[in-house]
Structures are given as structure tokens and as C-alpha cells.
Design brief:
Butyryl-CoA Dehydrogenase, subunit A, domain 3, three-stranded antiparallel sheet, 73% helix, 8% strand
């Protein structure tokens, strides 16, 4: 199987994981000895931060967990499926790639912020976090495979 086909497969699987990461909770929390569990989703955390007046944190989450990854999917998709490899698109993709790890950092900060367990509040990482991290890693792999395929041809 050639590098371009592997890149397409990793791209599609990454997109599925990205959607699953957004659709599933990233954290679960409950009060000690309580049966009820509150789930935290990426989108709900952004809206909660905006509602609470935390504009900076909300904007960071919005930009680095939604907008930049979606932009990267669009750029990589156009290169993979439309063979649009213009110099401008390649430069934009490289700019987005330089910021690609910041979404992992933002998610890590969010998890650490919510993970401080106390005797009263207990939190745990949920499946959405795993899906989101897998989507980021596969998107990074897709980008690397695309660079490799471009250097071969």
C-alpha cells in the first residue's frame, strides 16, 4: 500500500475520532457518594467558560480544539482528495501544523483543571478525551505521510 493511500486512511479515521471526541464526554464528575454523574463535553466547556465571563479560556478552547483542527482537516483534505498542492496552501498548512500541538496542551490544561479530586468532588477522564487525542495523533501522522508522499513524487 502506498503512502498516499495510508494518508487517506489515517485522515478518515482521524476525522471519525474527532467527531467522536466532540460527541462524547471528555470528563465525568460526581459528588462523593453520589450516584449522579455530570459529564463534561468539549463544546459545553467552551459555552460554560463564555457564560462565566472567562472569554480568554473560552476563546483558546474554541480556536485550538475546534477551529484550527477543522482548518487542518480542510487543508489536508484538499491536498489528499483534490490534489490541490499550491504553494499558498502548503504554507498555510505549515502554519497550522506549527500550532497543532497546542490543542493537546489546551485539552491537558482542561483535564488537569477538572482532575483535582477532593473529598467532595471526584472526576475521571472519559472516552471523548481518548477519541480527541487519537484524532490529533492520526492527523499529525496524516500530515507527515503527506509530506513524505510529496517528497517522493
Amino acid at each position: 500500500m502506498n503512502t498516499a493511500r495510508i494518508a487517506i486512511i489515517t485522515y478518515l479515521i482521524s476525522g471519525a475520532f474527532f467527531i467522536a471526541g466532540i460527541a462524547n464526554p471528555i470528563m465525568g464528575s460526581k459528588l462523593f457518594l453520589s450516584i449522579n454523574r455530570d459529564d463534561v463535553y468539549l463544546w459545553s466547556s467552551i459555552t460554560d467558560f463564555f457564560r462565566d465571563g472567562e472569554w480568554f479560556l473560552a476563546s483558546l478552547l474554541l480556536i485550538f480544539t475546534f477551529l484550527l483542527p477543522i482548518l487542518k482537516y480542510v487543508f489536508l483534505g484538499s491536498r489528499l482528495f483534490l490534489n490541490k498542492g499550491s504553494d499558498q496552501l502548503n504554507k498555510l498548512l505549515e502554519i497550522v501544523n506549527k500550532w497543532a500541538m497546542l490543542d493537546v496542551f489546551v485539552l491537558a490544561v482542561l483535564i488537569v483543571n477538572l482532575k483535582f479530586d477532593s473529598l467532595i468532588l471526584v472526576t475521571e477522564v472519559r472516552i471523548g478525551t481518548t477519541f480527541f487525542i487519537l484524532s490529533i495523533l492520526l492527523l499529525m501522522a496524516t500530515s507527515a505521510l503527506l509530506r513524505k508522499a510529496s517528497s517522493i513524487t
